[in-house]
Structures are given as C-alpha cells and as structure tokens.
Design goal:
By secondary structure, the protein is mainly β. The protein contains 1 helix and 6 strands, in the order ββββαββ. The protein is 4% helix and 47% strand.
Length: 134
C-alpha cells in the first residue's frame, strides 16, 4: 500500500521537540558544514497520541559549535523553514510521513538530567529511548 502525500512548502515552524539521536556533523564537497538532527515531538492526546519526526539540517559554523551539545534526548525549541513533507518506509513495512527542514535557530529549553521543582511545570515525557524510524 502506498501513501501519497503531496510535497508542500511551509514558510516557518517553531516546535518544542527532543533529539531522537545525537546530531551528526558532515562537510559538503564545497566545504560547508551541516549537522543532521533527528527531532521528535508529540501530536494528539491519549490513544490518539503520535510521534512526528523532523529531519533537520543546521548549516555553517553554528552547526560545528553546537554538535557536541546536540545529544539524544535533549529538549529544544527549534525554528525552521524550507519545510517539506516526504514519505519513508517504516521498519514494520508501513509507509510513514516526516518533515524535512532547514533549522534557522535553536534554543536549549531543558536537560533530561535536570529535575524541575515539583508542580513547576507539566511533566515532559522522557524520549531518550526513541529511535528515528528512518
């Protein structure tokens, strides 16, 4: 069965998410550095809750400086543009959808190892055991 999702451009996205794996730094043949980020966030509630994945790219000097800090499970607020939707084959053989984006800004919002004071904010799920589906 094939899932047909038209590719669409979205101008800007800001989302609170977690890294599904450590960021990977690469250098293009032209000498530019790019960090690949696998990001996850939840949509829906209760039994309808799902994980949405973003395949993000962070370019330039900022990428090389931030990669040591972009580790699996870190919570981030990202700002991204040049978003497109695409499909991929899931491990179970089904077809899934993901977003691809160019990350223009990142804010570190918390650390999975730092406990918040009781009743200060809603509990955030620990996504450190998630693996990107692609």
């Amino acid at each position: 069965m094939s899932l047909s999702i038209p590719q669409r451009r979205i101008d800007m996205l800001s989302v609170l998410c977690r890294l599904g794996s450590d960021a990977v730094l690469r250098t293009t043949p032209g000498g530019q550095q790019v960090a690949n980020l696998s990001l996850a966030y939840s949509i829906g509630y209760g039994e309808n809750k799902q994980t949405q994945w973003i395949d993000g790219k962070l370019w330039g000097e900022r990428a090389s400086k931030l990669v040591p800090h972009l580790t699996k499970g870190k919570q981030l607020l990202i700002y991204a543009n040049d978003l497109v939707t695409s499909t991929y084959d899931k491990r179970d053989g089904a077809v899934g959808a993901k977003l691809k984006a160019r990350i223009v800004d990142i804010e570190f919002t918390g650390d999975k190892r730092t406990a918040a004071p009781v009743n200060s904010s809603p509990e955030v799920p620990d996504w450190s055991d998630l693996k990107p589906p692609f």
